[in-house]
Structures
1.
Amino acid sequence: DQQVKQNSPSLSVQEGRISILNCDYTNSMFDYFLWYKKYPAEGPTFLISISSIKDKNEDGRFTVFLNKSAKHLSLHIVPSQPGDSAVYFCAASDSTSGTYKYIFGTGTRLKVLA
Amino acid sequence: DSGVTQTPKHLITATGQRVTLRCSPRSGDLSVYWYQQSLDQGLQFLIQYYNGEERAKGNILERFSAQQFPDLHSELNLSSLELGDSALYFCASSPSVGSGYTFGSGTRLTVV
């Protein structure tokens, strides 16, 4: 049972435009969410997080939106740059579990076209 | 350099063999997590250790085991290897409380 789903395996966007990556989850106990970026031959690197007490978190060109009622989060990248081309994973955790175990989605491959 | 060190980077071995993957967490991080990424799959959680003790278990096969040593480094042991075990194995670490993991660069295991 995939508790965290990224239904778009890939996305292509023109440089300078907005990239929107989506993520859905099924476990209502999840209350902390992360986005990671992964380049080939490297480990995932942390991008941005959001807690369930918020519905938006911004960090420079990256904004994450959380819709708890829909169990949906999205990552917006504005403006998109060629260096943003990578695989993006969303991850969710139930902080009350005490383990900080994150469940990851299958990833979305973003290609930003110059 | 993320501060999480995984060795070896690449490993090629035959079916039925046993291998050990090693992870040194970031300085000060007490938790170590192991994840498996197979082709076109997301990161599958295998197991977590906190300060030497197993804290959480995911979809880890009985052929796989792990431990965390007093110096906090961790080893993932994979035995009776099958072709389907070929994957990227990532280790990540976090402090006792944290906003996310720091991942190592992974070990690519190829079983032939």
Note: The interface with chain B takes residues 4, 6, 9, 32, 34, 36, 41-46, 49, 89, 91, 97-107 of chain A (CB under 8 Å).
2.
Amino acid sequence: DIQMTQSPSSLSASVGDRVTITCRASQRISSYLNWYQQKPGKAPKLLIYAASSLLSGVPSRFSGSRSGTDFTLTISSLQPEDFATYYCQQSYSTPLTFGGGTKVEI
Amino acid sequence: EVQLVESGGGLVQPGRSLRLSCTASGFAFGDYAMSWVRQAPGKGLEWVGFIRSEPYGGTTEYAASVKGRFTISRDDSKSIAYMQMNSLKTEDTAVYFCARGTTYGDPNWFDPWGQGTLVTVSS
């Protein structure tokens, strides 16, 4: 199984901060990496697919990148509505696996 | 508007069965893979399984933790995906989400998701 190691598990930030979340795959997954945002009591929402493609309607302050088996989600200027938990997910092979999540707090 | 609505959750005793439904609207259901993902209370997301669209054989894949106990099926005429859960264990307690995959065979990503339905396995 492909393990997805997400870091940090939590972070504290302020409105306007640049925030970076990292996800490392245990083996090569090409660009089969997606990022989701989840707010308490709500379903996750897709933000980025295929490592760096921004889903239509998602603010451009969100971006994704890949370097080998390391993937990064960047929020360029954190907004109040961005405080949430973020998950990466690989779709290279089954079992599909998620990272452990990063909680972004004030 | 693309929408997914799960139903069928509830309280069930260990060893019993439950069937979840995911009713879709707003898109060509038969063209898409459909997935189930669960989230235990206070925990992260865990993929449970998916079913491919009929053009890709309508075949299924499951996580090891549920393989042999859970069965995913689909009724494209009704735009509904099902998940039959047998031999339920306390560790199956979670919110179960259905999510639309892609039209590429395997669900390369999940978008959108339903609101989720809570399954509680307890005596």
Note: The interface with chain B takes residues 32, 34, 36, 38, 42-46, 49-50, 55, 87, 89, 91, 94-101 of chain A (CB under 8 Å).
3.
Amino acid sequence: GQQVMQIPQYQHVQEGEDFTTYCNSSTTLSNIQWYKQRPGGHPVFLIQLVKSGEVKKQKRLTFQFGEAKKNSSLHITATQTTDVGTYFCAGGFSGNTGKLIFGQGTTLQVKP
Amino acid sequence: NAGVTQTPKFQVLKTGQSMTLQCAQDMNHEYMSWYRQDPGMGLRLIHYSVGAGITDQGEVPNGYNVSRSTTEDFPLRLLLAAPSQTSVYFCASSYSVTGNSPLHFGNGTRLTVT
């Protein structure tokens, strides 16, 4: 079946260090979305990537979509304590009538 | 604009009981879905709907029923609750039915089955 794998599951960093989470699919994705969930909260949409090789930036966050549209990454430069939370990728598959399959999430802890 | 509203926020059930988790959105979104979130498992899709009268199964549909009689409402029914259904449930909606628009999530329902 369609699966989206995300690693690592947890990451602890010192404030100011960089952080990266990776998503992989065995089949080609039509698009990929990224969400952030703060502790005790609900997932909140960050960004969507659609094109092969696409790179988008939001301040200290850089999102990439692989050339084969099977993998994606989120990189945070110089983490801050406000970056704490769980980051999810969600993949859309062609012909899937709208359903998005989420990765397992990466929980980021930032030590001040 | 309330967005996506889920009720209740918390619920405790005994094994074998039934209940309905409510979800309503006021954004006129055609697409609605239910996810469950368990530690280390991410968000798993239970059921989804691309419009009133249309529903389909997601990754983990067993033990759950849904219906979509109106655009606004998408209730999730647990017929015979089991401890394995202890989880946090999120309802989410989107204006596009093709999966290329953001999902708007409700605040979640934390369900415990004893």
Note: Residues 71 and 89 of chain A are 10 Å apart (CA to CA).
